[in-house]
Amino acid sequence: MATKQLKQAEGPLVQFINRTVIPLLLILLVPQSVMYLWYASVHCQGSLTELADRLTNRGGPALVWAAVSVANPAVYAAILAFCAFQVLLMLLVPGRTCYGTETPTGHVPEYKDNGFACYLITMATFLAGTVYLKQRGLTPTVIYDYYGDFLASMILLSLAFCLLLCVKGVLAPTSTDHGRSGNYLFDYYWGTELYPRICGIDIKVFTNCRFGLTVWALAVAVFALKSYELHGRVVDGMAVTAALQLLYLTKFFWWEAGYYRTIDIITDRAGFYICWGCLCFVPSFYTLVSLFMVRQPEPVGPAWTAALLGFGLASLAVNYWSDWQKQAARAADGQLNIWGRPARVIRAKYSLDNGQERQSVLLASGFWAVSRHFHYIPELSLTLCWSAVCGTGCHIIPYMYFAFLSVLLFHRSFRDDKKCRDKYGKYWSEYCKLVPYKIVPLLF
Ligand SMILES: NC(=O)C1=CN([C@@H]2O[C@H](COP(=O)(O)OP(=O)(O)OC[C@H]3O[C@@H](n4cnc5c(N)ncnc54)[C@H](OP(=O)(O)O)[C@@H]3O)[C@@H](O)[C@H]2O)C=CC1
Ligand SMILES: CC(C)CCC[C@@H](C)[C@H]1CC[C@H]2C3=CC=C4C[C@@H](O)CC[C@]4(C)[C@H]3CC[C@]12C
Fold first, then answer.
1. Cα of 167 to ligand 1 centre, how many Å?
2. What's the confidence (pLDDT) of residue 4?
3. Maximum CA pair distance of the chain?
4. What tens digit of pLDDT does each residue of 93-128 get?
5. 30 CB under 6 A from ligand 2?
6. Residues 149, 155, 161, CA angle at the centre, nearest 5°?
7. For the chain, what are the domain ranges?
């Protein structure tokens, strides 16, 4: 579906850039870069200058790869055990049945909404395991000590996994939403299937939620514990960043069924971008602030601690509230009050590929009347709060996630607008007239 849209809109040069040059660069460069960032955070006092110096004068990229092992059987065993645990939870933990967005081919994906329970069980198991290990003089922070090995091994496993998904999408697709683009590289990068399932396991729910975001939460907890072990105290900045990130992730899992209706799931196929991204990029790049803080603890002081925590919590609440307003409007078919008034909605009609007509509710009240992606502002301010605990010293690494997210959300606001315009046509134009700004009212 997305591939079809891309084909129609692009000239040959743009197509070559979008489908060959950019995917090739990302596949070649991103896995290397996340290893460099891990190395800089752990071995170069978090300094990119020091990293550049070492890469230039002490052996180039081989230096980083020499610091890790991709042949550590214990690491592979731990990764596979964690995957097996998450798969078992997905299969065994009960949850109500919920549905994703109907695709243009008329396929309605069905899910078991048990993400929050699986997340709580995982975190409780981690807590119990930590207590158990501590009583025996052991510690789970060995994961921090071998994090480079974990990342390097995951990079290899995930690259292979994406190849498998690509072939599966061609030879044994799960649903009607699949196909090739005619370009092998792009198929690998973008994927060949929208909703792949293997033995009843939804692959994108596994990679994005049950692996990527769960590992993010566990990494934040492990790095906070490591900081405590190294410095003998709870460093205020580390406590603030860990609390905000863990609350954010808890909020995510509470809302997981809402995520099944976003472009990651309804537009992006299961390929390198989304699957490798969630299996490796999230555990390496999204965790950078906490990783950085382990060795570079910055005392924040009580006033900043309170300010960052307070503003961060307020941002989290607003982000959740705006996601909730959209979901509530759809669930109530537009018959609800928002901010004390009957909600203003557009009843937008659209057609499936087979010509059948459907109708959806577009909310134009509450946060969804302020701008079309207002919820990205609190998402960014929250991120800034959990990064700013690293101080304003000359370090770039702790602010890289914020910078990346700003670009990602800016780009996403265009992608989502295009997706909605293609789907709803004149109804989307009507909504854009009512709510003219994409993200920041009066500015953009
Ligand atoms: N940390 C990170 O890396 C990122 C975090 N996020 C967060 O994830 C959450 C979800 O954001 P995102 O994935 O961008 O998706 P959105 O919540 O913006 O959902 C987009 C979809 O919602 C529907 N929609 C759009 N406008 C309206 C409206 N006015 N009323 C009702 N439905 C509408 C459309 O789908 P339909 O086809 O159903 O009409 C659209 O495709 C947010 O909290 C965001 O901040 C997002 C991106 C990256
Ligand atoms: C170059 C690539 C390797 C980049 C890969 C990017 C992806 C890993 C991320 C793109 C969009 C991200 C997400 C979207 C929405 C989310 C909801 C939020 O509440 C939690 C985070 C997330 C699931 C987030 C995760 C990473 C992406 C899929």
1. 30
2. 45
3. 66
4. 999 999 999 888 888 999 999 999 999 999 999 999
5. yes
6. 130
7. 1-299, 301-444
Q: Which CA distances in Å does 353 have to 15, 107, 357, 423?
A: 24, 11, 10, 11
Pocket test for ligand 1, best of 220, 416, 435 (most atoms within 8 A of CB): 416
Q: Which atom of ligand 1 is nearest to the CA of 267?
A: 41
Pairing of strands 341-342, 337-338: antiparallel
**What pairs with residue 63 in β-bridges?**
none
| Contacts (Cβ under 8 Å, ≥6 apart) of 177 | 1, 103, 105, 107, 193, 194, 195
Residue nearest to atom 21 of ligand 1 (CA): 262
For residue 174, the one-letter residue type is T
pLDDT in tens, 174-183: 988 888 998 9
Residue spans of alpha helices (H) in 112-235: 115-135, 142-145, 147-171, 184-190, 203-204, 214-231
Q: How far is the CA of 136 from the centre of ligand 2 (A)?
A: 38
**Atom 6 (ligand 2): residue with closest C-alpha?**
277
Residue 402's nearest CA partner among 285, 252, 255, 262 is 285
Q: Is 67 in the pocket of ligand 2 (CB under 6 A)?
A: no
The rounded Å distance from CA 208 to ligand 2 centre is 8
